[in-house]
């Protein structure tokens, strides 16, 4: 196990709302490991309040490798099942290699048919309550929906006031897929993130006027938009602060100002793009959704 860290993980949405009602859900992230996935280990006062998600890493994104990876992840987690199992990225990598940044020459298109069928088997076997995808564009989600016997429950993607996923959200809603947002604060401190969300002048102005922090404005906005978000903090005070968003509201004008902010991706997927590779441009990788 590479490292264990505490984060708060909030799932704000209509059917996941109840997670947010329990303060202080402390979760640990266990990354790496033989499964090559990312496992969330929940440590909470009440186990029933936790929601465990794990992901299929790209080097296991082959029909015959899906079930073995989930079994290894469950072994690592010491659990019999997880709540949600997601395809991490819509691509495959050379089997057996677990590194990031990835070797771009080892990227290949994923065979959605065999991988999704194996994901469905995982759910049928009771090893996960639900299955879904992550970082899928409308087009790639449509490809999965076209062949799915069990449709994806979730598409987990970047989501914050500077990348509000308007088109994808509408598509997900129309197709019964719940959009869950990662990087709701812009993921500062990560390879792909920056402080551009927390330092945004409009968000700062709204926060000042309301006597809230920019982080709380972002989370409240996501909550009011009906999007589930995964917000991370290593700091207990900030974890508490991030939960204090339930007893106040944004005004219509504030929501409009946030909705009008210029949009661009923070997580561009650049790590998977190369001139002679499977995805030659960022536009191609996201099917024009940039
Ligand atoms: P820290 O762990 O020191 O609190 P995201 O959820 O978008 O991935 O962003 C995570 C980043 O945001 C982390 O660097 C985290 O730092 C920081 N963060 C989390 N909550 C807050 C907050 N309430 N105010 C400011 N920064 C925060």
- The end-to-end span amounts to 35 Å
Number of domains: 1
What is the number of strand segments?
Answer: 9
Bound molecules: adenosine-2'-5'-diphosphate
Largest sheet: 6 strands, parallel
Organism: Gossypium darwinii (Darwin's cotton)
Domain NADP-dependent oxidoreductase: 51-258
Keywords: NADP, Signal
Protein name: NADP-dependent oxidoreductase domain-containing protein
How is the secondary structure organized here?
Blueprint: E1 4-8, H1 17-20, E2 26-31, E3 38-43, E4 53-56, H2 63-77, E5 82-87, H3 112-124, E6 128-134, H4 138-147, E7 154-158, H5 166-174, E8 178-182, H6 201-210, H7 214-224, E9 228-230, H8 236-243, H9 252-259, H10 282-285
Parallel strand pairs: 4-5, 5-6, 6-7, 7-8, 8-9
Antiparallel strand pairs: 1-2, 2-3
Adenosine-2'-5'-diphosphate (A2P) binds at residues 183-189, 198, 213, 215, 231-235, 238, 241-242.
């Amino acid at each position: 196990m590479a490292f264990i860290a505490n984060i708060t993980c909030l799932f704000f949405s209509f059917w996941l709302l109840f997670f947010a009602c329990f303060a202080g859900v402390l979760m640990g992230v266990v990354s790496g490991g033989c499964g090559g996935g990312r496992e969330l280990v929940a440590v909470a006062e009440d186990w029933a309040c936790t929601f465990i998600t794990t992901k299929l890493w790209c080097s296991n994104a082959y029909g015959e490798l899906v079930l073995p990876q989930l079994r290894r992840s469950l072994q690592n987690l010491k659990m019999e099942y997880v709540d949600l199992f997601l395809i991490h990225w819509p691509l495959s990598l050379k089997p057996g290699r677990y590194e990031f940044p990835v070797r771009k020459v080892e990227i290949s298109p994923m065979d959605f048919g065999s991988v999704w069928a194996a994901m469905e088997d995982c759910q049928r076997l009771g090893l996960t309550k639900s299955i879904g995808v992550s970082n899928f564009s409308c087009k790639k989600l449509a490809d999965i929906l076209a062949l799915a016997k069990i449709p994806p429950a979730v598409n987990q993607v970047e989501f914050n006031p500077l990348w509000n996923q308007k088109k994808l959200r509408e598509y997900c809603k129309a197709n019964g897929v719940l959009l869950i947002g990662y990087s709701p604060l812009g993921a500062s401190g990560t390879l792909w993130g920056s402080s551009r969300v927390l330092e945004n002048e409009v968000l700062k102005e709204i926060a000042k006027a309301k006597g809230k922090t920019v982080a709380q404005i972002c989370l409240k906005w996501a909550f009011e938009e009906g999007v589930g978000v995964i917000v991370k903090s290593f700091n207990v005070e900030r974890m508490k602060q991030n939960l204090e968003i339930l007893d106040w509201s944004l005004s219509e004008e504030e929501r409009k100002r946030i909705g009008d902010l210029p949009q661009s991706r923070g997580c561009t997927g650049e790590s998977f793009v190369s001139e002679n590779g499977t995805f030659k441009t960022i536009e191609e990788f996201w099917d024009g959704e940039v």
